[in-house]
């Protein structure tokens, strides 16, 4: 009797656990991995960053390509999430990727980018560590400021087309390896003179962006001078209604309302830039005297001034009403300014001499201290009695300065801004269409080849708080003018403030700086094509991306 064999057991697929990827995800991952292996290396080296990082450890086998479905994951701290969102905003326009931002207790890249706030990390208040591997990017810092600086490094490691405001076809690849970084000096800044010529809020915000890109963390605003008063003071309203209506050359002037100033401060703070307001005293005050003649020594209103000479005006140091004015103005500005600094100028008060000058400065310094702020002033404040925490901003062109050295010996700290190296209103060359040359011509190499830590003989490096690049605006009338004088010299000053002195190398800096040119072009930023820099040739941007040819992934 024949029998029919019974069928064997039927094979049942093993259920896929919730954590396992589906077939489509596996296929896509395999495709991306194969593409990464076959694609050319990253277009940038890990060290192609301005300012130069403290430590770079490349790994040519670990390049990472930003996928369209990448997620940015951050620590849940609101400040960290704000940096993550800024990163997404930087990357979305050119990539066209959604780049959602999420938070986690322990952020992991998972094929994307993780921003990790780790208070136990030995990175300092502004340091960061950037780890780039084939499975994603880890950015770690002890503070949100450190994360912000790491983001600026990350954006420079992507192709220059990342600066495009519209989607382009590009392979968004980062070079593999690890960067561990922290600044040399705590104070790294630039100054914008908005008194000689007035600039709109949007122009100032654009300058903040330039500072943030190169890890500068202070914006010094020169708010008052002979030619115009630029900040509303409610208790002295004529300062802007009369004193704010002029500027060099006879233009319309202008001023910032308190809401305008708050907007600038808020925007800067979000980018880890501290605003340092300057009310210049006792000189450079013609615009205040036009508005309030009782502040003048002769109690007579001078005519409005639209020229560029200095040293002729001053408030009356012998009148108590002057100190009421100073206390009111500094009090209102301090209330609007969350940062620790109030800059009181003090330079070129040629008609207020000797004990009269030092007595005025000492009294104003106490007013600042009573407001809970730290006084900053140009180095002409040096002869006045020391006040704890006092900071002098040195702008000389000759390093020998015994008066400043003595002030430092008594406890003052120094911000170094030598006129013949750091004044960005100096011309690059004789044919530069705007700018000055009283301190000499400053090409990019001259802006770079000096050391803030040793520049003033007799001042030890530990007394140097940092470096600042001032931009005076007697000849500067537009945002394009500002950018022409800032770039490419601002990154040179930024590198002096951030990078270790041991990394200072002109030939290397020149090559790294050249790579910034296509980025500025892609972003629509004006800059001077300094002939000593080997700027790349060729198109700055790949072709715009054709959305109809894109592949849609399940997400």
What is the oligomer described by this structure?
single chain
Give the rounded overall mean pLDDT: 92
Cα(first) to Cα(last) distance is 60 Å
- Strands in their spatial order, largest beta sheet: 10-11-14-15-16-17-18-19
Helicity level, as a percent range?
A: 25-40%
Helix vs. strand class: alpha/beta
Taking pLDDT < 50 over at least 5 consecutive residues as the criterion, the unreliable ranges are: 1-19, 547-555
Which word captures the global form? Answer: elongated
What fraction of residues sit in β-strands? 15-25%
Count of DSSP H/I helices: 15
Largest sheet: 8 strands, parallel, barrel
Describe the model.
The protein is 30% helix and 16% strand. The chain has 555 residues and is an alpha/beta fold. Helix 2 (78-95) runs parallel beside helix 3 and helix 4 runs parallel beside helix 6 (258-270). The chain is elongated. The termini are far apart.
Which characteristics define this entry?
555 residues; 8-stranded parallel barrel; 7-stranded mixed sheet; 19 strands; 16% strand
How does the SSE layout of this entry go?
Blueprint: H1 23-38, E1 55-58, E2 64-65, E3 72-75, H2 78-95, E4 101-104, E5 113-117, E6 128-133, E7 136-141, H3 144-157, E8 173-174, E9 177-181, E10 187-193, H4 201-213, E11 218-222, E12 224-225, E13 228-229, H5 238-241, H6 258-270, E14 274-281, H7 286-291, H8 320-336, E15 341-345, H9 354-370, E16 374-378, E17 391-394, H10 402-409, E18 413-416, H11 444-448, E19 464-471, H12 479-486, H13 489-498, H14 506-514, H15 516-523
Parallel strand pairs: 3-4, 3-5, 5-7, 10-11, 10-19, 11-14, 14-15, 15-16, 16-17, 17-18, 18-19
Antiparallel strand pairs: 1-9, 2-8, 6-7, 6-9, 12-13
Helix pairs in contact: 2-3, 4-6, 8-9
């Amino acid at each position: 009797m024949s029998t029919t064999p019974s069928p064997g057991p039927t094979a049942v697929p093993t259920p896929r656990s919730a954590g396992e990827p589906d077939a489509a995800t596996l296929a896509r991952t395999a495709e991306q991995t194969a593409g990464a292996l076959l694609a050319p290396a990253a277009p940038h080296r890990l060290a192609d960053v301005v300012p130069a990082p403290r430590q770079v450890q490349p790994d040519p086998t670990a390049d990472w390509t930003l996928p369209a479905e990448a997620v940015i994951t951050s620590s849940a701290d609101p400040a960290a999430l704000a940096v993550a969102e800024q990163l997404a905003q930087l990357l979305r326009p050119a990539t066209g990727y959604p780049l959602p931002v999420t938070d986690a207790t322990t952020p992991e890249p998972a094929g994307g980018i993780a921003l990790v706030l780790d208070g136990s990390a030995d990175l300092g208040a502004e340091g960061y560590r950037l780890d780039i591997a084939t499975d994603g990017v880890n950015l770690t810092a002890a503070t949100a400021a450190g994360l912000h600086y790491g983001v600026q490094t990350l954006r420079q490691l992507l192709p220059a087309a990342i600066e495009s405001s519209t989607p382009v076809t590009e392979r968004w690849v980062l070079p593999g390896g690890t960067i561990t970084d922290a600044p040399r000096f705590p104070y790294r800044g630039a100054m914008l003179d908005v008194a000689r010529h007035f600039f709109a809020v949007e122009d100032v915000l654009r300058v903040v962006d330039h500072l943030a890109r190169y890890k500068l963390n202070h914006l010094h605003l020169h708010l008052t001078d002979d030619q115009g008063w630029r900040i509303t003071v409610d208790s002295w309203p004529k300062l802007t209604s009369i004193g704010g209506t002029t500027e060099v050359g006879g233009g319309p002037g202008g001023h910032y309302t308190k809401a305008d100033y708050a907007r600038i401060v808020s925007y800067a703070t979000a980018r880890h830039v501290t605003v340092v307001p300057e009310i210049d005293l006792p000189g450079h005050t013609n615009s205040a005297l036009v508005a309030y003649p009782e502040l003048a020594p002769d109690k007579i209103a001078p005519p409005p001034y639209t020229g560029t000479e200095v040293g002729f005006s001053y408030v009356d140091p012998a009148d108590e009403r002057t100190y009421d004015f100073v206390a009111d103005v500094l009090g209102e500005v301090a209330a609007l300014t969350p940062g620790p600094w109030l800059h009181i100028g003090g330079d070129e008060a040629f008609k207020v001499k000797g004990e009269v000058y030092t007595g005025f400065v000492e009294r104003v310094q106490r007013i600042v201290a009573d407001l809970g702020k730290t006084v900053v002033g140009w180095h002409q404040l040096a002869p006045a009695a020391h006040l704890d925490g006092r900071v002098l901003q040195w702008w000389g062109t000759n390093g020998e300065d015994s008066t400043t050295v003595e002030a430092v010996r008594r406890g003052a700290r120094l911000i170094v801004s030598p006129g013949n190296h750091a004044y960005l209103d100096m011309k690059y060359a004789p044919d530069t269409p705007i700018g000055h040359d009283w301190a000499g011509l400053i090409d990019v190499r001259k802006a770079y080849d000096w050391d803030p830590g040793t520049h003033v003989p007799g001042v030890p490096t530990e007394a140097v708080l940092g470096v600042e690049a001032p931009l005076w605006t007697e000849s500067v009338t537009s945002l394009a003018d500002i950018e022409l004088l800032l770039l490419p010299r601002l990154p040179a000053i930024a590198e002096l403030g951030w990078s270790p002195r041991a990394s200072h190398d002109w030939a290397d800096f020149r090559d790294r700086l050249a790579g910034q040119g296509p980025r500025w072009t892609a972003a629509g930023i004006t800059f001077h094509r300094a002939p000593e820099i080997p700027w790349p040739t060729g198109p700055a941007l790949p072709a715009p991306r054709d959305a109809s040819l894109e592949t849609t992934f399940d997400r």
